[in-house]
Amino acid sequence: MKLTLRVWRQQNADAPGTMATYPVDGISEDMSFLEMLDTLNEELTLKGEEPVAFDHDCREGICGACSLVINGDAHGPERTTTCQLHMRSFDDGDTIDVEPWRAAAFPVVKDLVVDRSAFDRIIQSGGYISAPTGAAPEAHSTPVPKPDADFAFEHAECIGCGACVAACPNGSAMLFTSAKINHLNVLPQGAPERETRVLDMVAQMDEEGFGGCTLTGECATACPKGIPLPSIAAMNKEWLRATRKVSR
Ligand code: FES
User: Fold this and answer.
1) Which ranges carry the 4Fe-4S ferredoxin-type domain (predicted)?
2) pTM (global) more than 0.90
3) 75 lines ligand 1 (CB under 6 A)
4) With contact defined as beta carbons under 8 Å apart, do 79 and 224 qualify?
5) Which of 61, 78, 110 is the last residue of a domain?
6) Do 165 and 82 share a structural domain?
7) Chain segment 32-49, per-residue pLDDT in tens
């Protein structure tokens, strides 16, 4: 495949950015999108130019490190992570725009890399689980109703990539935050800190400068792990419940 890439280049957080155009040739449709960018970077390096900076780690759709807006869509045209997007989703001769996540709370570090440490601080604000750990307990020692276990697993799938924020016109992190709260709050092991967890994480989310939710639903559409939109309603319910139980 022969493609034209229009890639966001930005030297650092304070420098102005611009789209740079690069032709790439010899791209296999079986390559992942990141392997295609590797090919571009090898060519740039051989020419003595600076390679394009982009985030990646596992390249297996697990870690949440990859984060590109491709032709205006977070993670591109398929409902998957950028690392699991393959070039067969594009046509020979295509022009492809590649940009970083764009949100006030995710400042650009360089080129396509953004600072997502706001997510880390939201998780940290939730505190720890005080349930005793150690040797694995007998599986049935703490009964968990099947619907609750399914609910917890569904929300625990969030990999924290930030596509929800990038897709949201408000730059809201409510889908991410709700996934992190819901997967713990529904389980008996998460019950001791149930109220403080939701109050602190929502407060931190607001402090980080993420926008509010207006239920456009773009977040759930872009989420590569299928975290559902009602997750936000469940978080709001938890938050209301906690405000009645905890006086601060
Ligand atoms: S690099 Fe780990 S999810 Fe894409």
Assistant:
1) 149-179
2) yes
3) no
4) yes
5) 110
6) no
7) 999 999 999 999 999 999
